[in-house]
Amino acid sequence: MKNDNKGFTLIELMISLTIFAVLVTAVFSFMLAGSRSYSTVTNRLNLNVQSQLALNQLESYIIDCNAGLYYADNTLYIFNRGSSDTQYDVHVFKYDDASKQIKYGYGKNSANLVGGNFSCTVTAEDLLAENVTAFSVTTVSDGTRLTSATVSLVLTSNSASFNAQKTIALRNKPVAATLN
Fold first, then answer.
1. Residue 92 within a domain
2. Comparing C-alpha atoms, which of 139, 152, 168, 153 is closest to residue 68?
3. For residue 99, which of 15, 24, 86, 121 sits 20 to 30 Å off, Cα-Cα?
4. Is 137 part of any domain?
């Protein structure tokens, strides 16, 4: 009588399961590495886009500044002449270290700018950028008037970081204002 066993022995079954587990682990590791790489690139790209949007917005205000510019205590004040020499429009950009945000505020005729000294009643409440870990503005003057401003931002999200910097030539060469 012929012994006709159809099926696998226990040893054959264990060997095939072990090979299958090794292959699944290798494929899963490859997919996980690709997913992490995609996530990192996407985070960096998002930070790049956010920083460019924020810098472009800041540039549009800084480049046309015609009365005064002041940066201190993580706050940038941009003054533009209003309908008379004693009335000013004020744009305020404030970096809040606790919330990691830059907020924007605008006030019409809300500043008193006399001889480069000013007082201002504008508060920044509208969100301009988030995930910001550093914000600074440095200015260059020709001795009496400002000629350029350099804005620097550092954005960080999910361990990805992006540094952005933009130097802006000031068209109207405003004064370097100081706070009263």
1. yes
2. 139
3. 121
4. yes
